[in-house]
Amino acid sequence: MLASKRVLAVALALMFSLGTAYGYVGKAWAEYSVSFASPSITITAPSRNNAECSGKLLIEGTSTLTQVWICLRGPEKELETYSVPVKEGRFSRTVDLRFGPGIYTVWAGDNPRRFDGSIRFTVNSLEDEDLRYISPSAYVDSDSAVIKSLAESLVDSGASDMDKVRSIHAWVTQNIAYDCAADSNTDSSMVPASQTVTLRKGICLNYALVTAALARAVGLPAKVVYGQAGAENDGFLPQLHAWNEILVDGKWVPVDATWDAGYIKDGRFIRKPSTTYFNPDESLWRKTHHPLEVTLD
């Protein structure tokens, strides 16, 4: 049960191939100039370039737009974007500087796939740790009220880390339906985990984002992984797919909630929750899942 190659390839490209997508800056001067205002956006916080902060950055401003896009580049050129709604001409968003200490570059604009550099500044994060797999991101929004409330309801206070992951996996496989229609609609798959929880449907990428968000919400580092999945010997040709790795007792445990949720028959999703691909035997996993890259979410 995999998303079509075209849909998933485009969706994943928006997540980790950012340097040629929304990380693009069109002019050489834009890479090095410092500016806090454009004709449609004014940044009011931070108020100076290279301000120091500890792991979190509050970005505030005014705009004539309905939403502002923020692009963040980490110390090792990691890139991610955030959509920030504008209400009554003002916007505010706290973003996690989760790629460790160092200089982060921030752009703002009206297009998530192209930033012209009219707004560009830097901040210096003093956070010692690399928190990319535990902190929230734009799509793994583990800090959202929806995700936090659900995670709290699923996990008992005395549960082991493995039991926490098992409870999360059970909820996702039992409550998220595979969205067959989304195979032909790329944009519909690029939504935050909290939105998928509300909609109760999605493709493999959405299953992985929800699983990662719930895991991080209960304090477990979680990766979103993409690669080829399938086994030709079983008549299931490998295709692009997304799944998770979650850190439990010092070991990255593989989890594929999509495959454990059910199957597709005659174009319809048939729910059949299982734990076949929850921390499976290593030989089975290597036969069916071949990672290509860990996304930045």
Describe this structure in words.
It comes from Syntrophothermus lipocalidus (strain DSM 12680 / TGB-C1). This is Transglutaminase domain protein. With 297 residues, the chain is an alpha+beta fold. The protein has two domains: 166 residues, C8orf32 fold; 93 residues, Immunoglobulins (Immunoglobulin-like, Sandwich), CATH 2.60.40.10. Helices cover 27% and strands 33% of the residues. It has nine helices and 16 strands. The strands form five sheets. Strands 2-8-7-4-5 form a five-stranded mixed beta sheet. Helix 6 crosses helix 7. The two termini are 22 Å apart.
Strands ordered across the widest β-sheet: 2-8-7-4-5
Strand content: 25-35%
The outline comes out as globular
Query: Uncertain segments of ≥5 residues (pLDDT<50)?
Result: 16-30
Q: Mean of residue pLDDT?
A: 89
Q: Sketch the topology as an H/E string, one letter per element.
A: HHEEEEEEEEHHEHHEHEEEHEEHE
Strand segment count: 16
Number of helices: 9
CATH-derived architecture of the largest domain: Roll
Give the helix level as a range of percent.
25-40%
And the CATH topology of the largest domain?
A: C8orf32 fold
How many domains comprise the coordinates? 2
Largest sheet: 5 strands, mixed
Radius of gyration: 20 Å
